From TrEMBL:
<dbReference type="Pfam" id="PF02653">
    <property type="entry name" value="BPD_transp_2"/>
</dbReference>
<dbReference type="GO" id="GO:0005886">
    <property type="term" value="C:plasma membrane"/>
</dbReference>
<dbReference type="GO" id="GO:0016887">
    <property type="term" value="F:ATP hydrolysis activity"/>
</dbReference>
<keyword id="KW-0813">Transport</keyword>
<keyword id="KW-1133">Transmembrane helix</keyword>
<keyword id="KW-0547">Nucleotide-binding</keyword>
<feature type="transmembrane region" description="Helical">
    <location>
        <begin position="162"/>
        <end position="181"/>
    </location>
</feature>
<dbReference type="GO" id="GO:0015658">
    <property type="term" value="F:branched-chain amino acid transmembrane transporter activity"/>
</dbReference>
<dbReference type="InterPro" id="IPR043428">
    <property type="entry name" value="LivM-like"/>
</dbReference>
<keyword id="KW-0067">ATP-binding</keyword>
<keyword id="KW-1003">Cell membrane</keyword>
<feature type="transmembrane region" description="Helical">
    <location>
        <begin position="283"/>
        <end position="308"/>
    </location>
</feature>
<protein>
    <submittedName>
        <fullName>Amino acid/amide ABC transporter membrane protein 2 (HAAT family) /amino acid/amide ABC transporter ATP-binding protein 1 (HAAT family)</fullName>
    </submittedName>
</protein>
<dbReference type="InterPro" id="IPR003439">
    <property type="entry name" value="ABC_transporter-like_ATP-bd"/>
</dbReference>
<feature type="transmembrane region" description="Helical">
    <location>
        <begin position="92"/>
        <end position="110"/>
    </location>
</feature>
<feature type="transmembrane region" description="Helical">
    <location>
        <begin position="211"/>
        <end position="228"/>
    </location>
</feature>
<dbReference type="GO" id="GO:0005524">
    <property type="term" value="F:ATP binding"/>
</dbReference>
Length: 573
């Protein structure tokens, strides 16, 4: 099925990039003809460092995956070329071998660092361990690396050759990146960095996106190391180590994460600064570097280029989109949820959930038919939100079975469940707060699998590009979350207290809107709600949950008349 693509013009970031890139290429193409060997070698080294910083930024600046030990990959590239040269093997063979090794290491490290069981800090810790291990390994493996003495890289040609190779690799890498940035990958990396949870519930795997970013980033760092090795002349364990890893973090942070020119600018400014500072204050420059890093992270998290661009750009959404095209240009992925034949949208069988030894959901059986609106009510702490989390995959069941649209999803990750056509709204609206409402909508539509004609009160957000989503009122943020979820084209939507914080009148309007969404778009709705007027207005059936068990199921009047319900819940209303 075709997706209605947003017609809103995208920021013309690519044109600017291409023009600036061409100007830069022309300028540096003239360098070999005007510069003597030494400055040309320095320029090549600066280019390699810039590329190294750019590599780290692919992971950290774009997908939010911080690597504390990226020099390990830079060093693998440098050692690959050095070891090959030392053993009379063509350096290009050493570079290619290094790329393969780096890809494998990055896959393993990345899988652990951003895998399902990873904490936010796991990646930082494991990459720190990697750089420490790599440096120590290079010191100890005398036969291969010549230990702390390092390996002299035999000079295989004039400096001009290194320079031209560096420029070629640089142009290829940046061109590939610009193409990726403006496609599906760039859009998803941005979305994952801005709100991983929301992105997951729009059917995108955060792990796959982050892992791809990390492996690409490792490959670029390796290529940078391979370019740098012949110019450095001596490759020693320091190139893999923690000091080098820290320096590249500073380059990226000072220049500005997520901006191509920022990272090259940062690499240039800090490298040149280091030359002068290093001469003047010796090893103390590392201390200065550390202080600069802390100050930048604390007071200027967008770096120098981020500060500049805030003054230059008036379009509020452009800064956050970082050149990514948020509306899809490519044909959409079409998940297979349309093919499901089950008459049930949701079927839960004997589901139990305990937190530690405390049982919260105690053997729930529940069926929601396709096209139904079911309201889930119950006293505070009954387990309603927990049940929605179990259905959506945010929590794993302790035992039991969950089916969505006929598929057994009990062990599935949230993004796989979403791709069956399962939408999710949260008690606290989950949006891309740094993007405009129009960009939020464009992202949901870019990931959609069917075209949806939204009701006017929801479609108004599509053209709202003069504020950020975070600036909207709570009521509008709730509506925007609903608009995104529906524009995405789900068959089943889980809503957690959608009317919380709304006035009585607004709540009833919301109930009427949800009825229309159900009738006109055929969406099945499972709604957790406390407001009994809304429940009465909305529900085809009401399920009452108390102490993690289904107490009764029926119409609002039936459950209201039920003695146990009156005792457990309604009696208190
Ligand atoms: N991650 C968790 N770890 C430990 N206990 C939890 C966790 N999540 C929920 N609980 C507990 O499970 C119980 C049910 O919580 P839940 O949020 O599902 O209730 P609810 O019916 O949605 O309540 P409310 O109407 O107040 O939102 C509560 O006692 C809560 O403290």
């Amino acid at each position: 099925m075709r997706v209605m693509l947003p017609s809103r013009p995208e920021p013309r970031v690519a044109t600017r990039h291409w023009v600036a890139l061409s100007a830069a290429v022309v300028t540096i193409a003239a360098a070999p003809f005007v510069l003597p060997s030494y400055p040309l070698a320095l320029l090549t080294l600066a280019l390699a460092y810039g590329l190294f910083a750019f590599g780290l930024d692919l992971s950290w600046g774009r997908a939010g995956v911080v690597s504390i030990g990226h020099a390990a990959f830079f060093g693998i590239g440098a050692y690959g070329v050095a070891i090959a040269g030392h053993n009379d093997v063509p350096q290009i063979v050493g570079a290619l071998a290094a790329l393969i090794i780096s890809a494998l290491v990055a896959l393993v490290v990345g899988r652990i660092g951003v895998g399902p069981k990873a904490l936010a800090s796991t990646m930082a810790v494991i990459t720190l361990a990697l750089t420490l291990l790599a440096e120590q390994g290079a010191r100890s493996w005398l036969g291969l690396t010549n230990g702390s003495n390092g390996i002299f890289v035999p000079s295989s040609g004039a400096v001009t050759n290194f320079y031209v190779t560096g420029i070629l690799v640089f142009v290829i890498v940046v061109a590939i990146w610009l193409l990726l940035l403006r496609g599906r990958f760039g859009r998803r990396a941005l979305a994952v960095r801005l709100n991983e949870h929301r992105t997951e519930h729009l059917g995108v795997s955060p792990m796959r996106t982050k892992l791809t970013a990390f492996v690409l980033s490792a490959l670029v760092a390796t290529a940078a190391g391979a370019i740098a090795a012949p110019v450095m002349g001596l490759v020693s364990p320091g190139v893999l180590g923690i000091v080098m890893s820290t320096q590249v973090l500073v380059w990226v942070a000072v220049g500005g994460k997520g901006t191509i020119f920022g990272v090259f600018f940062g690499a240039g400014v800090v490298t040149i600064g280091q030359q002068y500072l290093g001469d003047a204050i010796g090893a103390w420059y590392l201390l200065v570097l550390g202080v600069v890093f802390i100050l930048v992270v604390k007071f200027a998290p967008t770096g120098l280029v981020g500060i500049l661009s805030r003054f230059l750009r008036r379009d509020v959404g452009r800064a956050a989109s970082q050149g990514a095209v948020i509306g899809a240009k490519e044909a959409p992925d079409v998940p297979g949820h349309i093919a499901h034949k089950s008459a049930d949208a949701i079927r839960i069988t004997d589901v139990q959930k305990s937190f530690g030894s405390v049982p919260i959901i105690n053997g729930v059986d529940l069926t929601v038919a396709r096209g139904e609106i079911v309201c889930l009510i119950g006293p505070n702490g009954a387990g309603k939100t927990t049940l929605l989390n179990l259905i959506a995959g945010d929590l794993a069941v302790t035992s039991g079975r969950i089916e969505v649209l006929g598929g057994d999803v009990t062990r599935w990750a949230p993004h796989r469940r979403a791709r069956l056509g399962l939408g999710r709204l949260f008690q606290v609206p989950s949006l891309y707060p740094d993007l405009t409402p129009g960009q939020n909508m464009a992202f949901a539509r870019a990931e959609a699998f069917r075209a949806v004609d939204l009701p006017e009160e929801l479609d108004r957000f599509s053209a709202m590009d003069d504020v950020l989503a975070s600036d909207l009122s709570l009521a509008d943020q709730r509506s925007l979350e609903l608009a995104m979820a529906i524009a995405w084209g789900p068959e089943v939507v889980l809503l957690d207290e959608p009317a919380a914080g709304l006035s009585h009148e607004d709540s009833l309007q919301l109930a009427s809107l949800m009825r229309r969404i159900n009738a006109q778009l055929g969406c099945t709705l499972l709604v957790v709600e406390h407001d009994m007027d809304i429940v009465r207005e909305l529900a085809d059936r009401v399920v009452v949950l108390a102490n993690g068990r289904v107490l009764t199921v029926g119409t609002m009047d039936e459950v209201a008349a039920h003695d146990d319900v009156r005792t457990a819940y309604l009696g208190a209303v």
